Amino acid sequence: MAVFLDNAATTFPKPESVYRAMEHAFREIGVGPGRGGYGRGLAATRLVFEARESLADFFGIGDSSRLIFTHSATEALNLAVAGLLREGDHVVSTTMEHNSLVRPLHLAGQRGVEVTWVKGNDRGFVEPHRIAAALRPTTRLVALAHCSNVTGTIQPVGEIATLAKQAGALFLVDAAQSAGVIPIDAAALQIDLLAAPGHKGLFGPPGSGFLSIAEGVELMPLFVGGTGGYSTGLDQPKALPERFESGTLNTPAIAGLKAGVEFIRETGIDAIRKHERALVAQLREGLGEIPGVVLFGPASPEAHCGPLSFTVAGYDAAQIAFLLDRDHEICVRAGLHCAPLVHRTIGTYPAGTVRVSPGYFNTAGDIESLLQALRTIVAPAGRG
C-alpha cells in the first residue's frame, strides 16, 4: 500500500466517522438546508446548525452565526479581502503566503489598495518588529498565514495581532495548515477574520471550509442570490450567515467536517500535535544524515507544523518525487506549492523543493520507509 505524505495538500485517509457522516447526509437526508419545512429539509438545517455551533466552539467564536461556510479556505480569503478592502486602504502581508492570499491581495492592489510585503527570514519566520515597521495610519488589514505550507514555520500570530490592534488595523489569519493541529482561539488571539479549509487538519472533505467574521467587521458579499429565507426582498439579506451563503450549501461536506472536528475533540488536539511533531523530528533527523540534502524551515519541532521542505544536490525536486512514487509508492509533492513568494524568500525559486507533510494517520514506519527510499535514490551507485 502506498505511503501518503502530502497531508499539507489534503489529509488522507479520513477518520471512518467522516465517511459515515457524509454517507448518512447524502443517503438519509439528501436535501439542502433551509429549502423546505418537511422532515428532510429540517434535518439538513439542523445538521448545518450543529456543525456551525461545533466549529464556532472549537475556534473560540462566540457567535456561531458569524462563521460562514465556504467551499475552501481560498474562497474564505477572497471573501475577507474583496469584501473588506477599498481604494486607498493599506494592507500589510508577508512573503510567506500561499497564492490563495497573495492573488486576492494582488488583485486588490490593481484596484487601488496598497500592499506592503514584509519579508520572512531564511527560516521562513516573520519577525514582528518588521510588521510593526510596515504599519501606517492607513493600514486597514494585517493578513498572513499561521503556518507556512512550504517551510512549516509557525508565525507568532498573538504578537502580530497585538501590533495590528495597536495600529487600529484588522487581523486576518490563514489557518490552512494550522487548523486542527494547533489550538486556535480566535477571540483570545484577537483574530478578526479566520479562514480555514475543511479538508486538511480538520479531516473534512474537499469542498468545505469557513470564514469567521468578528463582531463589528462589515464585509460585502462575493456573490448574491437565493438564501432560503427572506425571499421577498431584492436586496441581499443583511443577517448572518445568510448574507454570505447564497446557494444551496454542501450538506454532506459539512456533515463530514462536523465529524472531523468531533474526531479531533475525541482524540485530543494536543495528542495530534504531539504525534505530528514527533514525525517531523524523526524526518528532520533522518534527512539531515543523507548526503546532499538541504533542509528548509525551523530546526525546532516546536516552531514547526507539518510541512517540511528539502532539496537534494544534483537532483531536481520533481525527479525525487517521481522516483519516490514510481519505485517506492511514496506520495510527496514537489515544485513551488502554489507559493512562489515563499520560494523566493528561502532561495529555492524557480526549481522549488520536495515537500513531505506527515499527518496524524502516518507512522514512524512511514517516515523510515521514506528515508530508506531516499537513501536508495541518492546512493552513488543508484545514479547510474
Shape: globular
* Average residue pLDDT: 96
Number of helices: 11
Measure the end-to-end span. 28 Å
Strand order, main sheet: write it out: 2-8-7-6-5-3-4
Strand content: 5-15%
Number of E-state strands: 13
Q: What's the name of the CATH homologous superfamily of the largest domain?
A: Type I PLP-dependent aspartate aminotransferase-like (Major domain)
Quickly give the CATH architecture of the largest domain. 3-Layer(aba) Sandwich
Largest sheet: 7 strands, mixed
Number of discrete domains: 2
Alpha-carbon Rg, integer: 21 Å
Topology-level CATH name of the largest domain: Aspartate Aminotransferase, domain 2
Summarize the helix and strand pattern as letters. EHHEHEHEHEHEEEHHEEHEEHEH
The helix-and-strand class reads: alpha/beta
Helix content estimate:
25-40%
Residue stretches low in confidence (pLDDT < 50, at least 5 long) are none
CATH class of the largest domain: Alpha Beta
